[in-house]
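TL;DR need structure tokens for one chain.
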Amino acid sequence: MFHPVRTATASAGLAILTCLLLPVAGAQGTQDAAQAVAPAETPNAEDAYSAIIGDYQALLEQDPVAPEAAARIRGRTAVLADTGYGPALNLLAVMTEDGLAQPANPEAAYALFRLAAQTGSVDARLNMALRDLWSLDPARVSEGRSTLDELVVQPDLPDGFGAILTGYRGWAEMHRPDLDTPPDPETTRGRLETGLAADPDNGWFNWAMADWLSDMPAELQDRAAILDHYQRAALSGQGRPAWIAGMMHLNGDGTPQDAQEAFRWINLAAIAGLDDGVISLAVMHAVGQGTPVDAERARALYTEVARRGNAHALRGLGFMLIHGEGGPADPPYGVALAQLAAESGDELAIQLLDQLRPHIPDEPSWHDQVSGARAGFLRETGLSPDALYGAQTETSAAPVFMSDPGRTAARTE
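>> reply
TL;DR here they are.
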């Protein structure tokens, strides 16, 4: 019934919006899209949508996704959405947010979610609420929580949806708390347990439950249970829980110490795009922890995150360049990166530069090389000193929900 991915009635305005979101496929592509949902082939909207969502799920399993197939499915969805059918509007919003067959456009996706919600789509209202909660804007977070509160008491919810909504209320209380009215901890736990009973592998519910259990007094914590919840969250694609699970394996926290198992989970965190995951993976390659020593790989990983502006990675890459680890030495470039890290507040970079200072040549030409390397790095990456940061504040995208009315009805019968 529910398809987590990663993952107004019809009007002239809606027609214009969905046409603007159609892929640029030429006249033949447009004809193919229209024919795909012609009345002779699809007797009603539910059947048409059920066919589309099945093809969409199959498409997402392809690696890589075929551009032509993506354009066709998006076109079919847009044609159905243009009739004002809420589930299709919701799916088109998902495609627009994810960048299927077109560049990702979160603002246009949110507008489509809103249109879908106006048709009565519970999925779209939940998707809007989750994006409001993910926004980190206090007003939107409050709006998102209010929407969840309204949805959970809405009559005639699809089977199982109430439990999912309750689980997200628990998640919001853990990860987007209202500081003016802190929730009762046991109520939050009960809501998370309700969500997990309905969807045991939900990454956000497991992550929130792991954090809830970690907030208990140390003597009452079940570290093995905490690790299990973090790992379940990691398997859904969540980078931060994967990194935490890896560090627990590395430190023997709730499980026997196992560097190879730690490497597995930290690698998942890196795949998810978490800076700490990529950096920890670099360290493990550099020192041979859970994997053979590979300084060249470590240097490449540091480079990946340093170019995003992460101060820790700038410091790590800088000192590898200074000492010629994992590739040719380039001390001026290394010092330039270490200085950028120090200026952004990295305490270890400040300390290491203090230790290095007596060994830096006091020559104008050498300092000119450092200045040139610094300017070159900022120019190549499009960063500014103000854009450098000490740690990521958010890595996960909001989840999406899609119901399949046709399949739900078939099961009910």
